[in-house]
Amino acid sequence: MSRLERIYAFHQKLKNNRYPNAQTLIQEFELSRATAHRDISYMRDRLLAPLAFDASRKGFYYTEDDFSLPFEDSPKLLFLMGLLNKMADEAGLGSLPEMKKLEKRLSELIAPGYEELMDNVLCQWIEVESLAPSIFETIVEAVVRTCVLEIGYCSVTGSKSSRLLEPQRLINYQGRWYLLAFCLLRQDHRLFHMARIETAVIGKKRTEPPHQAAESFLDESFGIFLGQVRYHAKIQFTGTAAELVRRQYWHGKQRIEELENGICLSLPVSDDREIIMKILQYGANARVLAPESLRLRMVEEINKMTQIYKF
């Protein structure tokens, strides 16, 4: 059992006026006397516990009734820990052994009431994809150890390829995991959809200077489809859509202009696909003002949708 667990057990006895001592730790956790004394010293010297020894009771007590250990009785920290665990689950990482271990440790040790909190925190993302734990762990290890990674990749069209990568960064976007890496086959940076990685094997450690992506690579344009900015989209939102989008963050370089009838959202775009999906989400309350090429793409998509709903 870890020192942290022993300290919390000792702390609970102090709070309950049980007057524990070194012998209490020795008997409960089968420690050496030296280790028990080190635990008590750690509480006093490192955690600043207001410990005093009562000779008549042959045990310790707190001289301050309101003393608490880190994380104890802290609703904000409790909530944060619960939220992070729920988010990991929603991000497709809930099956990882490390996450299960962390949840068990938190529920049993750090925070009384944690288990109840977990039942009262709900995180829901749509389109969440589960990842094979073994592949995710291999990719994480390659990123941390700065090793080359060999993957088997299946594109959205079903074509398969083998790639040798220099992995650089893990990205979770809208519930999906992506790997930013330098592709040695294409000699360029690429974003790989991790749910489409079918095999992953760690290679040798990189010895050459890394091919670092430019700082602007990930945030230059809107959405997950990265690349150079092709245009700045201008979209008019009206009605309830205007009220919603006015408070939303779509991109770091977005601009919102108030109009007589709603708002105009401007933002840089490199690929039409995701921006079209976002605009369609707001139906007749969203209208493309510029550029003309995007407006025509919207007209084309709406016409196709109209055709499939005709009786």
CATH class of the largest domain: Mainly Beta
Task: Say what the CATH topology of the largest domain is.
Answer: SH3 type barrels
Helix count, per DSSP?
Answer: 10
Q: Report the strand count.
A: 11
Low-confidence stretches: none
Largest sheet: 5 strands, antiparallel
What Rg, in angstroms, do the CA atoms define?
A: 28 Å
CATH architectural designation of the largest domain: Roll
Helix-strand pattern, N to C? Answer: HHHEEHHHHEEEEEEHEEHEH
Strand content: 25-35%
Instruction: Give the CA-based shape.
Output: elongated
User: Strand sequence of the main sheet, in spatial order?
Assistant: 6-5-4-3-7
As for the number of domains, it is: 4
Structure description:
The chain is an alpha+beta fold and 311 residues long. The chain folds into four domains: 3-62, Arc Repressor Mutant, subunit A (Orthogonal Bundle); 75-119, no CATH class; 133-213, SH3 type barrels; 231-308, Alpha-Beta Plaits, CATH 3.30.70. The chain is 39% helix and 25% strand. The strands form three sheets. The chain has a five-stranded antiparallel sheet, covered by helices on one side. Strands 9-10-8-11 form a four-stranded antiparallel sheet. α2 packs across α3 (33-45). It is elongated, with a radius of gyration of 28 Å. The N and C termini lie far apart (69 Å). The relative contact order is 0.07. The mean pLDDT is 85.
Secondary structure layout:
Elements: H1 3-15, H2 22-29, H3 33-45, E1 51-54, E2 59-62, H4 75-93, H5 97-110, H6 114-119, H7 133-145, E3 147-154, E4 160-173, E5 176-183, E6 188-193, E7 197-205, E8 231-237, H8 239-245, E9 255-259, E10 262-269, H9 272-281, E11 286-290, H10 292-308
Antiparallel strand pairs: 1-2, 3-4, 3-7, 4-5, 5-6, 8-10, 8-11, 9-10
